[in-house]
Specification:
2 copies of one chain form a homodimer. Chain A is an alpha+beta fold. Helices cover about 35% and strands about 35% of the residues of chain A. A 3-stranded antiparallel β-sheet of chain A has the order 1-3-2, covered by helices on one side.
Chain lengths: ~80, ~80
């Protein structure tokens, strides 16, 4: 699930709903400034709702963005796996 | 090393300097909105400078902040370990 501009609680509730429906693993992804929000979402989900989740597996990386004018910039990304045995 | 309000490159250069001087392990820490910057710093350091670093070990957590008025809020934190064998 990609974290974007909506309030954190929207993502928390969406993830919570899917995992209550039986999903055992879900990956939260974000780029750039929304990385902080992705960490908030993961922390709220695992502390308040899916408290039987394993320790999160977290990966950070860099993506190259090619803009319309041909310029390239790098943006950091994060992936946080929320998993229940 | 705590990531705060300075530009990312200040932290990148400080970390780079310490590791060039022989330090083999360093932990980048950040809270709240600066988490995104901490990921940028870790990515720039390991992609451009300390390219022989191991895969980062990353831990996320939540801290409670008690304000002057007694109110409590939670803030997410991140710790990224940059390590060289």
């Amino acid at each position: 699930m990609y974290i974007g501009k909506k309030p954190s609680m929207n993502y928390v509730l969406a993830i919570n709903t899917r995992m209550m429906e039986g999903l055992d693993e879900l990956t939260i992804k974000a780029r750039g400034k929304t990385i902080s929000k992705a960490v908030d979402v993961a922390e709220i989900v695992t502390n308040r709702f899916i408290t039987d989740a394993n320790d999160n597996q977290i990966k950070i990386s860099t993506e190259e963005i090619i803009h319309d004018d041909g310029n390239k910039t790098n943006v950091s990304t994060i992936e946080i796996v929320i998993k229940r045995d």
